[in-house]
Write a structure and sequence with these properties.
Order of helices and strands of chain A: H
Structural class of chain B: mainly alpha
Shape of chain A: rod-shaped
Shape of chain B: globular
Number of helices of chain A: 1
Low-confidence stretches of chain B: none
Number of strands of chain B: 0
Number of strands of chain A: 0
Oligomer: heterodimer
Helix content of chain A: over 70%
Helix content of chain B: over 70%
Radius of gyration of chain A: 19 Å
Strand content of chain A: under 5%
Distance between the termini of chain A: 62 Å
Largest sheet of chain B: none
Number of helices of chain B: 7
Structural class of chain A: mainly alpha
Distance between the termini of chain B: 45 Å
């Protein structure tokens, strides 16, 4: 692997990690907001 | 909305910084570095932002112990999550750099070793949290743990000043305006993305705590009605 390919691998890993952490956070927030709204509706 | 705006701004800066660092800036004149130096645009912001995140964990842990507010524990753990992810990214990108520059992915350099210890300390922080069920005990114990664990941050920073360290210190790096400005853009992008993640994740965790309380309240009311 030449040095430019290794740089791309490093960049790809960092980018994928960022995407994964954000995607997880967005999905988690969405699910919790849905559960929260459902519960509020039930209480009303 | 604030978190989404920060996320978009951070992403735009990240894409611009990645494009400039990979395709616009020329290769290094040093034969041992050439294109490999481009890793610093991802490695340095990851490491610096992780140190910032762990510092916030320390601050919120102290605040939790002083005020005993649940939200401080949520902020502390959210920062630690981001910090652990960022230091993992720094370790991986650093290893890729090391393979080309020093010939091996892992060299037991003082900085590498200190950061590995730091990584294990914060993995242990999450293991500790996972092992305790009671929220109050979990928050208190992990706050105390993170205060002691923070010692690994100055240790990691200072480790490259040790004489036999292979890791270049900031004084050794001669950074020109074009490289410096791109590095600055990437730093800003990482910090904005970190703040955005912090806002999203802490909102999710706070809502989860409220939801758990509401569900307990609801089930106890249901139990009373049945009785």
């Amino acid at each position: 692997m030449d040095d430019f390919s290794s740089v791309f691998v490093a960049v790809l890993i960092v980018t994928v990690l960022w995407l994964a952490i954000f995607l997880t956070a967005f999905i988690k927030l969405r699910k919790i907001e849905e559960r929260f709204n459902d519960l509020l509706d039930q209480i009303k | 909305m604030r978190s989404l705006a920060l996320f978009l701004l951070g992403t735009i800066l990240f894409v611009y910084g990645a494009y400039t660092s990979l395709l616009v800036l020329p290769a290094s004149p040093s034969p041992s570095l050439e294109n490999n130096y481009r890793v610093i645009f991802f490695h340095v912001p990851s490491a610096v932002t992780s140190f910032l995140a762990f510092t916030l964990t320390l601050v919120f842990s102290i605040l939790y112990l002083l005020k005993r507010k649940e939200s401080y524990d949520v902020y502390a753990v959210t920062s630690a999550k981001a910090g652990l992810f960022l230091i993992t990214a720094a370790l991986i990108s650093g290893s890729v750099w090391a393979k080309v520059a020093w010939g091996s992915y892992w060299n037991w350099d003082p900085r590498e070793t200190a950061v590995l210890i730091l990584w294990f300390v914060y993995v242990a922080y999450f293991a500790l949290r996972a092992s305790i069920e009671d929220n109050e005990v979990k928050a208190r114990n992990s706050a105390v743990f993170s205060i002691f664990g923070y010692a690994t941050i100055p240790l990691s920073y200072l480790s490259s000043f040790i004489g036999f360290s292979l890791h270049p210190s900031t004084k050794e790096l001669k950074i020109g305006l074009d490289v410096g400005s791109t590095l600055g853009i990437m730093m800003l992008a990482f910090i904005l993305l970190f703040i955005s993640y912090f806002l999203i994740e802490s909102r999710a965790e706070s809502l989860k705590l409220m939801l758990d309380e509401l569900e307990i309240e609801k089930s106890s009311l249901g139990g009373e009605n049945h009785g």
